[in-house]
Specification:
mainly alpha
């Protein structure tokens, strides 16, 4: 992996992590406000899980494989 590719992955990781935190805050705000829009809540949680999977994938790509 080149330096530029690694930098691009780290940038993407930062963006996805920020979006994941924003969704977490939005979900918490909805729960706190007592909003009962289950469809919206389900969509937010589904997107949050997708982001988590993408973040894990990028983190795996950035970590070198070490054979013990």
């Amino acid at each position: 992996m080149t330096e530029a590719e690694e930098q691009a992955l780290r940038q993407k990781l930062a963006e996805l992590s920020q979006e994941h935190r924003d969704l977490d805050a939005a979900i918490a705000a909805m729960v706190e406000a007592g909003t009962l829009d289950q469809l919206q809540m389900t969509r937010l949680k589904k997107r949050k899980l997708q982001l988590k999977d993408q973040i894990a994938s990028i983190e795996d790509a950035l970590l070198p494989d070490i054979i013990a």
